[in-house]
Amino acid sequence: MMAELRVLLAEDHAVVREGTREILAQGAGIVVVGEAADGAEAVALAERLRPDVVLLDLSLPVLNGIEATRRIRAHPRPPHVLILSAYDDEDYVVAAVEAGASGYLLKTVHADDVLAAIRAVARGEIVLHPTVAHQLVARAAHGGAPDTLTARELEVLRLAARGNRTREIAAQLALSSRTIEAHFTSIFNKLGVSTRAEAIVHAASRGWVSLEREPPSA
């Protein structure tokens, strides 16, 4: 049997928190291990409970969601962070990803989308709500491919933006997983970022990659 996904829920509005808890209870293999009503409590519980995923609102009292994400991701063996926010401003998205978030959803999404996103970020994937993804792509006024990245690095980054993991990229390019990781290290150094999520958002905001996911195979 698959191990349960342990989720920490951070939301300051009690009614919203209760509703979200009910949504998570519908997800097979997902268990809520703790709840926080402010950012500081979320940071403390993430360290103590060691969840797999923190589902976090941006507008938290005491410590806002961006700073809470940054501190949570600074923990040893940190959990993945999925933002569930009412704000669709691209600057919030970029700030959240730069802080270490693996996903950003709007509170208008359906329950199934939240459950799918939790499972996706737990697998190491990047999840962006279509609205904010399109906004990032629309920022591609700079256009063109980056001079700093090689054709192979750009290809690796484009495949990652479509939701492919290291071994899947390696299979598609007929390369080893170690070579793909080396390409990512080079990409991070050239773009001045430290995570795949940051690299993808950086590239998408400049029109270098598309955030459209590949349709699932039949």
Q: Major sheet: size, sense and barrel closure?
A: 6 strands, parallel
Count up the helices: 10
- Give the integer mean of the pLDDT values: 86
Secondary-structure-based class equals alpha/beta
Inertia-based shape: globular
Strand content: 5-15%
Low-confidence parts, pLDDT < 50 over ≥5 residues? none
CATH homologous superfamily heading of the largest domain:
Response regulator
CATH classification, class level of the largest domain: Alpha Beta
Largest sheet, order of strands side by side? 2-1-3-4-5-6
When the domains are counted, the total is 2
CATH architectural group of the largest domain: 3-Layer(aba) Sandwich
Radius of gyration, in Å, reads: 17 Å
Report the CATH topology name of the largest domain.
Rossmann fold
Number of strands: 6
Short characterization:
The chain has ten helices and six strands. The protein has helices at 14-25, 39-49, 65-73, 90-99, 111-122, 130-138, 151-161, 166-173, 177-191, 196-204; strands spanning 5-10, 30-36, 53-56, 80-85, 103-106, 127-128.
